[in-house]
């Protein structure tokens, strides 16, 4: 796997961003936009997926990164559950549900694979930085 230098390069983050934009689009319409509790909760959960990936990437250790990825995975599950509520309340159509559910599930599967990869590839010991100059 090539080295990732920015969280924006992580495929699961890209999927989570797409999911978040879709959730915001759906929850800005009709009765969904007026169900403040569900609207705010599903938005927070979708934002949590991408935010925890970013926060974990910027954390101190690989173990912390894996922990944050686990939280992101849980938030993807939360989005999926809340999509059922939106569907059951007729806030979204079946096609919208399928589109968002598939994205949430894709993000979750990407996170599972990424976590497994990180667990099977521990970081090397010691600090190795190429071409870093700490002088002003």
UniProtKB/TrEMBL annotation:
Pfam families on file: 23S_rRNA_IVP
CDD domains assigned: 23S_rRNA_IVP_like
Classification via InterPro entries: 23S_rRNA-intervening_sequence, 23S_rRNA_IVS_sf
SUPFAM superfamilies (UniProt xref): IVS-encoded protein-like (SSF158446)
Domain of life assignment: Bacteria
PANTHER family linked: FOUR HELIX BUNDLE PROTEIN
Entry protein name: Four helix bundle protein
Lineage start: Bacteria, Bacillati, Chloroflexota, Anaerolineae, Anaerolineales
């Amino acid at each position: 796997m090539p080295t990732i230098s920015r969280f924006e390069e992580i495929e699961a983050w890209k999927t989570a961003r797409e999911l978040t934009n879709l959730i915001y689009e759906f929850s800005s319409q009709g009765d969904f936009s007026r169900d403040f509790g569900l609207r705010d909760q599903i938005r927070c959960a979708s934002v949590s997926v991408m935010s925890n990936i970013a926060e974990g990437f910027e954390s101190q250790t690989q173990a912390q990164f894996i922990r944050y990825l686990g939280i992101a995975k849980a938030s993807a599950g939360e989005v999926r559950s809340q999509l059922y509520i939106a569907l059951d309340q007729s806030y979204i159509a079946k096609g919208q549900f399928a589109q968002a559910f598939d994205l949430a599930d894709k993000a979750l599967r990407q996170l599972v694979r990424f976590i497994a990869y990180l667990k099977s590839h521990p970081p090397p010991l010691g600090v190795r930085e190429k071409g870093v100059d700490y002088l002003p």
